[in-house]
Fold CDC20/Fizzy WD40 domain-containing protein.
Amino acid sequence: MHMDMAHYLLTEPRKDKENVATPPSPAKEAYRRLLPEKLLNNRTRILAFQNRPPEPANNFLAELRADAASIQDKPARQRRYIPQSPERMLDAPGLVDDYCLNLLDWGSANVLSIALGNTVYLWDASSGSTSELVTVDEDDGPVTSVSWAPDGRHVAIGLDSSAVQLWDSTSNRLRRTLQGVHESRVGSLAWNNNILTAGDMDGKIVNNDMRIRNHAVQTYHGHHQEVCGLTWSGSGKRLASGGNDSLLHIWDVSMASSAQSTGRTQWLHRLDDNLAAVKGLAWCPFQSNLLASGGGVGDRCIKFWNTHTGACLNSVDTGSQVCALL
């Protein structure tokens, strides 16, 4: 940055060569001798690396190496522990081996209902006690589906005879029987407040209002094989249904037709990316438009759907059929 000093050093050798024959005058010689003393402090170079520069007070590279070593020494973050053995195992003799049926349901009162043949049992997870709720007649059985009402007290059971019964679990009393709506077994049930939705082997889905005498109020038409899974969204405005026809439907509650109507319901989305029956269904509790579905042995995948657009966001191969999702 010292332009005068740089100019002097660049031009001094050339002047010496040009004036070799003529000796410099004493005045010029004195000037040349004084100039480096004043400008360069008796240095002959602008940049001199005669000695190694001193080490900085804080050695940056040494600190980096120390930090890297400390990071390596830290233990890896522990992964979430997933137990490989069940916490409790219950005997279930007589459990019907049928993928399309829904024979287990856990109620809000922490009681598990399970259908074994013609009998429905209740297992209280708090006390560990087991009790029998009902054994249906041979002509009506076996039991093909169970579903707890939101109150955790009443449980609906679907029958092979096409009827649906509502039982009070505290008094073991039959409160109501729904008949004349379905013509085949009822393998799936789902509650939406006071509405009990039932799906049968013929692919018909019916909304039953349990508060009124003429309970069948709405129907959904879209499946042409047995309805394997039903679940309502948290808002109660969307219904997801999976069928043995490998179809997944998303229905809007406002688009259902009346039970007496012969017209066909227009679904919101018909999703046919599945390769087998769709049974496991679960709405995301914190993102209302996200739905997970599980397929049978020919599909083996859990798929995640955007129910606003109908797009499949992800598909995970589980290596086995998916019977239920929570």
Summary: The mean pLDDT is 85. The radius of gyration is 41 Å. Helices lie at 3-18, 26-39, 60-73.
